[in-house]
Amino acid sequence: MNSRKDTKNILITPPVDPQNAKMRIDKWLAACTGLSRNRISALIDQGGVFFNDLLLCDRDKKTAIGEVYRIEIPDPVEAVPQAQSIPLDIVYEDDDLLVVNKPAGMVVHPAAGNYDGTLVNALLSHCRDSLSGIGGVIRPGIVHRLDKETSGLMVIAKNDEAHKSLSAQFAVHSLERCYLALVWGRLLPAQGMIETQIRRSPVNRKKMAVVKSGGKRAETHYQTIAVYAGGAVSLVECSLKTGRTHQVRVHMTAQGHPLIGDKVYGKVPGTARHNPVLSAAVSFPRQALHSYKMSFEHPATHQIMRFEIPLPADMQAMIESFS
């Protein structure tokens, strides 16, 4: 079977014939395209596979007669990111790891549209030859990530053993990770636990969504820290017990309290647009989310390391504007 390449990075399969109906989707697509089944699974997770123009979210789907699949393959990035002398806000560093305070606006690793100026570029310059490569050439030392517009704490591995240990802690969710978020409205109850399933949205592959089934379990514990402007805005601490993409943003939106500045999952309440007290919140240019607290077991010493940093200046200035 041969696939047809419509444009540079798009593969389109022939319609599924009766002989190949009810076949595992990764097996069918691998046979059509020559891509490995692991690569196909990764592309499904990344939102790059469609059938009959619908986003494919379920890796366990079976083929059906007449279905046509489209695979969108991301543009390749430079094989080896270049070291760049970019200032880093280093909270802690030793021979095995470093903890940094990532600023809002910095991408973690190179990808399409952001080939340089990333945290990885800065780390390669700072760590030189010591940075772990176990995470792959594009993500050396990276064991977790923050969205571009999210600020705050990240831990970076400087050697393979540290990377394995930290990755294992993330995998079993034994690390403590707490965020501070400024959200629209007042949460009721003021504290609690949100447990849902999250997967990529079937209608917009750039978004994640809460679903009844077929997603990955996501658990967030939240607590309201302060309420401002008569209940129009709340400062909320969110503690992650799982690490799903956009988890805090999706869960707060699902509760009816999207993050201030979140252009993907939220919108400004109509009552806020004409309230001068809320002008700084209405015009806030990013999602108001900050990774402010983290703890983990040190890979070498096995001591529990704890870190906490204050809100960044832009979120603090917004809070001060409410008074």
On the 0 to 100 scale, the average pLDDT is 91
Q: What about the largest sheet?
A: 10 strands, mixed
**What is the percent of helical residues?**
10-25%
CATH architecture type of the largest domain: 2-Layer Sandwich
Please name the CATH topology of the largest domain: Pseudouridine synthase
Q: Residue ranges: pLDDT <50 for 5 or more in a row?
A: 1-7
Strand percentage, roughly?
A: 25-35%
Counting structural domains, the number is 3
- Sequence of secondary-structure elements: EEHHEEEEEHEHEEEEEHHEEH
What structural class do helix, strand and pairing data support?
alpha+beta
**Assigned CATH superfamily of the largest domain:** Pseudouridine synthase
Output the CATH class name of the largest domain.
Alpha Beta
Radius of gyration: 22 Å
